[in-house]
Amino acid sequence: MTRARPLPLPVVVTALLLSLLAVSLVLLLRGGAGGAGFLAGYAGAWTVFGAAVVALRRVHRRHVVPLLLAGAVAVTATGLVAAPRTSTDSFRYAWDGRVQAAGVSPYDHAPADPALAGLRDDWLFPGPEACGRGGADLAPLDAGGCTRINRPAVHTIYPPVAEGWFLLVHGLSPEGARHKGLQAGAALLSLAVTGLLIGVLRRRGDPRRAALWAWCPAVPVEAVDNAHVDVLAVLLSVGALALVARRRHLAGGALLGLAVAAKLLPAVLLPGALSGVRRPRAVVAVTLSAAATVALAYLPYVLLSDGSVLGYLGGYAREEGYDDAGTGGRYALLRLVLPDAWALPAALLGMAAVSVTVWWRGDPERPWHGALSTVGTAFLLLTPGYSWYALLLVALVALDGRWQWLGVALAGAVAYLAGPVTGPVGGTVAYGAAAAVAAAQPLIAWVRQVLGLVSKRVRNQREKVAREEKPSRPAISVRGRPEPPT
């Protein structure tokens, strides 16, 4: 009987760190901490995550994929242990799915509309006793009572592919599943992203970078526990970039259009998808297929809705201060050096410059490199106040490997969780630190390149001087005697 070989030490160390990460996430999500307290525990989980990713570098290649998958399942599953902790968006998702199942367009009625009173239940619309106790997750209704749905007096903001996802989850969820159906669906999407990342990265050499998504605490917290629909957009976006990298521009553009019709934010990926693409035919294939897909996704809702399918999009932009920099924490870094009135034009100009550079000088073999630059720049220029937006950025970091951009995801968490205590200052400091970290590596690489060129030039100059100062030997005649000087 042969004895089983013990696992190599790097595998054991990485597995122990992953176990510690899973335990810390369970304690965080099952605990009662909120705001700054939750942020402290979240930062601790990120620290363990970083240690696990570093430990994975020493794991032999044959153990990497099994460890990646096992860790992904364990970390993702932690998001299922509690009801949504830091966001109420999933309650709107559940309501939109229920409304559509009843044959009503979600763009026509706000949740508070009495016309939909027949669809209400005690979960989304608690009774007077629960409303009397109040709570941070309860919004009052004008006609009396309350609801767990945020912004109940406005129409939905979500695009059509997201609405289709809400309807699908509602149809597949058993009676009384409540938030569990959305969380389980989000967990499956998160694992699908992990599998797709491993597939893409294995074809290019080493799949270790997939851990930057698979084990990232943002995935169980934002994608699974809070069940944000952003994870659906992430899956479609990664698939789109993978297809474009293989020169399948039409299919890649169509997937990108589906991603945009799920969350809008992936529209910023277009310059990255066109990285280094100069042929007009390929450019048209990506852009037109993406635009046509978005239009086709909206078409059924346009035909079925009486109101605008844009819903509360314009109101949300105003509410968040994207149209007026002086009203909130947006454009925080730009406002440190520019007047408020200049912030929006400066952000648009900056995004245009980065987009053109990525398109013209990008690498068509690695469209995610340029996509990460455009998305990361957009976050630093706009400084959004919601942490789950950065799920797309985390996936791009996993594809590209520039880990320093993960600081932007942490900055979003600081702005969201600590904002009620620190105000805009906390988010500004966090995004400023993230910008410094993101800029440090290319700056260091540039300095090293310059110093290398200078060193090479000095060395060449010294060798030239040494050759000129070295005395020349007298010429030797055929007979071995020195030739007389001429």
Helix and strand pattern:
HHHHHEEHHHHHHHHHHHHHHHH
The counted number of beta strands is 2
Overall average pLDDT: 91
Quaternary form? single chain
Adjacency order of strands in the biggest sheet: 1-2
Helical segment tally?
A: 21
> Could you give a short account of the major beta sheet?
2 strands, antiparallel
Query: pLDDT under 50 segments (min length 5)?
Result: none
Beta content comes to under 5%
Q: Report the C-alpha radius of gyration, rounded.
A: 28 Å
Question: Which structural category do the helix and sheet elements fall into?
Answer: mainly alpha
Explain how this protein is built.
By secondary structure, this protein is mostly helical. Helix content is 64%, strand content 1%. It has helices spanning 9-30, 36-56, 61-77, 89-101, 128-133, 160-172, 180-203, 211-214, 218-225, 230-245, 249-263, 270-273, 280-304, 313-319, 332-335, 340-361, 367-382, 391-400, 406-417, 419-422, 424-469; strands at 139-140, 146-147. Strands 1-2 form a two-stranded antiparallel sheet. A hairpin with a 5-residue loop joins strand 1 and strand 2 (146-147). Helix 4 (89-101) crosses helix 6 (160-172) and helix 10 (230-245) runs parallel beside helix 18. The longest helix has 46 residues, at 424-469. The protein is globular. The mean pLDDT is 91.
